Design the sequence.
């Protein structure tokens, strides 16, 4: 288990604050519709499993409460651990909300990639093949999101990329990314990994 402390100087604090607000709002809505009340306490979280064999915990208590007071968090702690076996937002399964959650989260991924790809090029070089696996698979996923969510290579001789056990290659051409190759948890963990390898 690893705890990632996103503080005010971290590139991902804004994105994870917004993502936490969205996921907490979904959890509150589900809980309220099912039980008539929705109360989360400090330490409650949404655990999302990824295809990479890891789970990411997003806090459910705090993001909405802080936003409602017109304040901004000074930090957010994100935990990455082995898969839990159940995708939860609070205690509720979210399989029925997959498309909506994908549509909300994937733009954060694309935005981070586009915002920092020049940093990656400056640091790793302009040749995609020599980039670290985090940024190579980031390129593949970002490209997929720009092509109706499907893997799209212009050059079918592009080498495959392996990141945390997930392999993508031109053999996956045309395959829908979400839930076949990656899940929301993978996108969020990959954001952290992509950020970590940048200077």
Sequence:
């Amino acid at each position: 288990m690893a705890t990632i402390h996103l503080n005010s100087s971290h590139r991902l604090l804004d994105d994870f604050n917004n993502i936490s607000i969205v996921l907490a709002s979904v959890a509150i809505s589900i809980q309220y519709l099912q039980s008539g009340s929705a109360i989360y306490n400090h330490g409650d979280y949404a655990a999302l499993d990824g295809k990479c064999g890891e789970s990411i915990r997003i806090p459910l208590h705090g993001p909405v409460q802080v936003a409602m007071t017109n304040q901004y968090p000074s930090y957010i702690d994100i935990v990455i651990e082995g898969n839990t076996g159940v995708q939860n937002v609070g205690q509720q399964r979210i399989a029925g909300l997959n498309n909506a959650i994908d549509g909300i989260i994937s733009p954060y991924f694309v935005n981070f990639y586009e915002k920092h790809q020049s940093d990656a090029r400056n640091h790793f070089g302009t040749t995609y093949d020599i980039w670290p696996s985090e940024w190579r698979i980031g390129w593949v996923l970002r490209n997929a999101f720009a092509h109706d969510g499907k893997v799209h290579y212009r050059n079918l001789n592009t080498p495959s990329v392996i990141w945390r056990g997930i392999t993508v290659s031109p053999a996956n051409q045309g395959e829908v990314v979400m839930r076949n190759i990656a899940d929301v948890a993978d996108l969020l963990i990959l954001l952290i990994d992509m950020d970590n390898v940048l200077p």
The longest helix spans residues 98-124.
